[in-house]
Specification:
The chain has nine helices and no strands. It is mainly α and 152 residues long. It has a single domain, classed as Leucine-rich Repeat Variant (Alpha Horseshoe).
Length: 152
């Protein structure tokens, strides 16, 4: 067997081993002290829409972890294709958020969820209108949310 074929087989086996991780392992990785591991886990769980990860992602987005980790958790929540709890978690996070980069992602996640019948969507937007309107990026997303989902 040629060296090239052997290297390709080894690479495929490594990819297979990585993809063999189950959702419970990715959820556990959210608690990793390694920001890269936690970020990768959040991204994977969001991409896969793992509903069991909603609460752990919520804990992560509301934590005092690095900005990038919290952004990944917020973005993952916005990909859950679930009404209710993700919007509520994001509203809670928005009301406590000090970093406008994370806040911007949280708002984009709420926009993506399209949870129009959840009063937490309006509460989050109203909070930002009253407290974060000075940030042009936040103000832009708030405007887009109001356009897509006008107040009732």
């Amino acid at each position: 067997m040629s060296k090239k074929i052997l290297l390709n087989l080894i690479a495929m086996a490594m990819v297979g081993a990585l993809s063999a991780k189950d959702k419970a392992e990715f959820i556990a990785d959210l608690k990793s002290t390694d920001d890269a591991v936690a970020t990768a886990a959040a991204q994977h769980l969001g991409k896969e829409g793992v509903k069991d990860a909603i609460e752990p992602l919520g804990e992560l987005v509301k934590s005092n972890r690095a900005t990038g980790v919290r952004i990944a958790a917020a973005a993952a929540l916005g990909k859950m294709d679930t009404k209710g709890r993700p919007t509520t978690i994001l509203r809670e996070a928005i009301e406590a958020e000090q970093d406008n980069q994370v806040l911007y992602t949280e708002l984009l996640a709420i926009l993506n969820l399209k949870d129009v019948n959840n009063p937490d969507l309006d509460k989050a937007v109203t909070y930002c209108e009253a407290n974060k309107a000075h940030d042009r990026f936040v103000a832009d997303v708030v405007k887009r949310i109001r356009k897509a989902f006008p107040k009732k």
